């Protein structure tokens, strides 16, 4: 059996809702169903432009989630204040660009080192476990460790978007980054672009503790429902590490 955790990102349930500015589908209800199906945690990203999750969703998730609530936040001061007051169990510091469709890469920890150090300390003081969402590059990992983050979440988008030999090379980057992270005292999560076809090689990486997966699961659940979707992803992760 795998000892890895599957965290389901519920943002895109809110994306569907916001297309009509309706009250359904409700990401909080979706999160509850994911937990009931075996998910180990729930992840959400409150963006400054509120394109999907809304403030009320965060409050609702905090009241409803019984496993672990992971809140993604940018380094923007207004968003950090919301994160500090959210009561989330974990925080992941991410880049944010209003022109992007979705997060396009990892946070530049080197460039953002002063703000990152402040944010890590503040969110840790708020009672949450902090991770930094970064590309699988040793120099970025070194800074994440230096500013006191206990976790990194490796950006798997380049791997997920590649094919053939390029994908194999990106997988090796993720493996090497995991080895390096653990060697300097960081714990490792992964996420972005992972789906039912590409997740197993990443889930098989020794040292990866948590996989954050959202869009692929929401999209599949449109056809198959929440329970079978969560259980199939759990099966693939467990099979990869068997």
TrEMBL record:
GO terms for molecular function: pyridoxine 5'-phosphate synthase activity. It comes from the Bacteria. Keywords: Cytoplasm, Pyridoxine biosynthesis, Transferase. It is found in: Cytoplasm. It catalyses: 3-amino-2-oxopropyl phosphate + 1-deoxy-D-xylulose 5-phosphate = pyridoxine 5'-phosphate + phosphate + 2 H2O + H(+). Its main location: cytoplasm. The active site is at residues 45, 72, 192. Pathway: Cofactor biosynthesis; pyridoxine 5'-phosphate biosynthesis; pyridoxine 5'-phosphate from D-erythrose 4-phosphate: step 5/5. One of its GO terms (cellular component) is cytosol. Pfam families: PdxJ. 3-amino-2-oxopropyl phosphate binds at residues 9, 20, 193, 214-215. GO terms for biological process: pyridoxine biosynthetic process. Its EC number is 2.6.99.2. The record marks 153 as: Transition state stabilizer. 1-deoxy-D-xylulose 5-phosphate binds at residues 11-12, 47, 52, 102. Catalyzes the complicated ring closure reaction between the two acyclic compounds 1-deoxy-D-xylulose-5-phosphate (DXP) and 3-amino-2-oxopropyl phosphate (1-amino-acetone-3-phosphate or AAP) to form pyridoxine 5'-phosphate (PNP) and inorganic phosphate. Belongs to the PNP synthase family. Homooctamer; tetramer of dimers. This is Pyridoxine 5'-phosphate synthase. It comes from Saltatorellus ferox.
């Amino acid at each position: 059996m795998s000892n890895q955790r599957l965290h389901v990102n519920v943002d895109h349930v809110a994306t569907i809702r916001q297309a009509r500015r309706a009250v359904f589908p409700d990401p909080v209800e979706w999160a509850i169903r994911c937990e009931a199906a075996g998910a180990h945690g729930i992840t959400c990203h409150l963006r400054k432009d509120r394109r999907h999750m809304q403030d009320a969703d965060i409050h609702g998730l905090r009241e409803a989630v019984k496993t672990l609530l992971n809140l993604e936040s940018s380094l923007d001061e207004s968003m950090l204040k919301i994160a500090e007051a959210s009561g989330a169990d974990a925080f992941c510091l991410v880049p944010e660009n209003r022109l992007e469709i979705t997060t396009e890469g990892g946070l530049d920890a080197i460039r953002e080192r002063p703000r990152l150090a402040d944010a890590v300390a503040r969110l840790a003081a708020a009672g949450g476990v902090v991770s930094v969402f970064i590309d699988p590059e040793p120099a970025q990992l070194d800074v994440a460790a230096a500013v006191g983050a206990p976790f990194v979440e490796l950006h798997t988008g380049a791997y997920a978007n590649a094919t053939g030999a390029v994908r194999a090379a990106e997988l090796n980057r993720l493996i090497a980054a995991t080895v390096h992270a653990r060697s300097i005292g960081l714990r490792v999560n992964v996420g972005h672009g992972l789906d039912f076809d590409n997740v197993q090689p990443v889930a098989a990486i020794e040292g990866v503790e948590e996989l954050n997966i959202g869009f692929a699961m929401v999209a599949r659940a449109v056809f198959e429902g929440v329970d079978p979707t969560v259980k199939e992803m759990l099966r693939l992760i467990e099979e990869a590490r068997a």
